[in-house]
Amino acid sequence: MVTQAPPILIVGGGLAGLFCALKLAPRRVAVLTPGSIDEGAASFWAQGGVAAAVLDTDSPERHAEDTLKAGAGIVDAEVALGVAREARARIDDLLSYGVPFDRADGAFTPSREAAHSERRIVRVKGDTAGRAIMETLVARVRAAPSIELLEGYSARELLTGDGRVIGLRASGRDGLLRDFFSSAIVLATGGIGHLYRVTTNPREACGAGLAMAARAGALIADAEFVQFHPTAIDIGVDPAPLATESLRGEGAIIVDRSGHRFMADIDPAAELAPRDIVARGVFASIAAGRGAFLDARATVGAEFPARFPTVYASCLAGGVDPVTAPIPIAPAAHYHMGGVVTDARGRTSLAGLWAAGEVASTGVHGANRLASNSLLEAVVFAARIAKDMGEPSLETAPPSSAPARDETGAPDQGLVDELRDVMARDVGVIRDRAGLTRAARAILRIEAAATHAHLRNMALTALLVTSAALTRRESRGAHFRSDFPQAEDALAHRSYLTETQARAIAEEALK
Known about the structure:
alpha/beta, Methane Monooxygenase Hydroxylase, Chain G, domain 1, five-stranded parallel sheet, 17% strand
């Protein structure tokens, strides 16, 4: 079935997608999402807030410096400074839409998070920024006459013709595949967290956008860098609820079962060290049988329900009262620094395709994203894409291809579970060549056995991450190789690969 979409098609209903749609108004745009825009996007779950230099004691230059330090030597300094300088303007945009950021007497009351040298996390009621921002934007989008919502469509494949992207194939709730033709497509499909057994991401964050772009020929960057949040609440829930980093910014400490504050033995910044260091410390304590717990009793205590209501509710649902007991924690796949390569305007290597949000790799995050830079990057690049697009033409010829077919059934859940277990075991917090090679073999087998496009996309993204990790024979940022535990100056640069190159790397490793 063929459908002519508006001139601009945005794939994804998270912060990047909705913000871009609003900035494009009054130009006609369609937003395609697998579910309702009222729920499901990872942006709803963001607890920290938006990083921005809003205090007189701070500056965009200091923000950019912190971003470079956290990114472990491979951040694009020019892009990072540009994003930091645009932060205040994007905060003002969100305020104009009605986002109720925390303020006192008209002034922002930002918090501090790990690896930030200043208090610059602009929040909403402590830990509800993501939900507050998204609920505000959703209301605006639903009221905008220029925005058409295509809810209930899961993206499966980018359509190409004459050397450019010209459309998207998506599966509806009825199982029918539909082709949407559009002369400008924005990928805003989110991250890859659900490729891992333990993740803070929703089920939709399974790497579909990354796989679709790679299969269409787009260049991928920094795929090996997966950030594991060190303080997911370990209560057996999938996805795992998150204990926001703001808790540590307010003084919460990490202890083992005996009450020992072990992060102080690992890094001078202790709990406020970069996330990769904290995640490995937590991982090692759990692996050694000592457990890991976030203790906020002394610093938050009885104020927990009012100051951090989301975390408080999640803990209570899991049988833990954080007012009186430490919170059990574990590292969880949280954010992907890699993605589809874009330039400073959000353009990918494929004509007709832009990317924003977690699916994109802009150069801002390097090897380790600085806390709360993700929402900032999403709105900055969404605004840049809207400015860059101009008025796309409707004159796009459909490609020559076989008729769309029905998509019946569902991905083999056994293979999906196996893929997630493989990624957690062999492409997780700590990696080595043996595990990565074992993962590559399993991923190729799962991909070959897949009969559903959803699983094939998951497998391709998993292969991109694994192949990039095999190639980077060092430890840097969120990528830690136990067989190459030191950073190498010669490798202090971003990594790039295509689908073809990723397959070649995996095949070579299996010889």
